[in-house]
Amino acid sequence: MFVGGGKTGDGAKAVLDVVSNAADLEVKNFRYSQVGDPDFQWEVTADRARYMKKNEEVHLEHVAVRLVSKAGRVYHMIGDRGVLDNGTGDMEITGNVVVDSDRGERLETEILRYRAAEKKVRTDGNVKMYRENMRLSGKGMTFTLEKNEMVLSSNVKAVISNVSLFY
Fold first, then answer.
1. If DSSP codes are grouped into helix, strand and coil, which group holds residue 133?
2. Is 165 within a domain?
3. Is 10 contained in some domain?
4. How many domains, the chain?
5. For each of the chain's 167 residues, which pLDDT tens digit applies?
6. Residue 121 pairs with which residues in a beta bridge?
7. Domain containing 71: what range?
8. Count of CB atoms situated within 10 Å of the CB of 32
9. Which residues contact 40 (CB under 8 A, 6 or more apart)?
């Protein structure tokens, strides 16, 4: 691990601030990049991260995730909290979760779970999705990254504007 600092015009500024607490390791201004997967590149940032060695988990506060697919699609996810499983690569983001895509789609929910082995994002909670001329809502959702396919599980409602089906 490298812990360093640099000087700015305002004085000394820590690049990485490590603090010991109940966690095995606590880091402020956390940044993690995963580029080993040929299909997806991840970058996770958080205001604070606490590593729990016993569970191989990183607990995150005010988390943001940037995902870039092999096809060049870009997704930005934010949430109040997150848990990254260091062993499996699985991740859970909770609290005011918002996902924005480079094509103008927006998804809102309270919890998202990513399973690395399946390359799927899921929630059992309520979901709202917005796109130009379209609003969807439902309960439960599965998004398969490799297929770029979303399935809403139940209580689905849709409003689509400017439909030219009947004229």
1. coil
2. no
3. no
4. 1
5. 323 333 333 333 333 444 444 668 888 999 988 766 777 888 999 999 999 988 889 999 999 999 888 888 899 999 999 999 988 989 999 999 999 999 999 999 999 999 988 989 999 999 999 999 999 999 999 998 888 889 999 999 999 998 877 66
6. 114, 143
7. 15-160
8. 16
9. 67, 68, 69, 70, 119, 145
Residue 4 domain-assigned (yes or no)? no
CA torsion through residues 5, 84, 86, 55, sign: positive
CATH number at residue 46: 2.60.450.10
Asked whether 55 and 66 are in contact (CB, 8 A), the reply is no
9: in domain? no
Predicted structure pTM score = 0.79
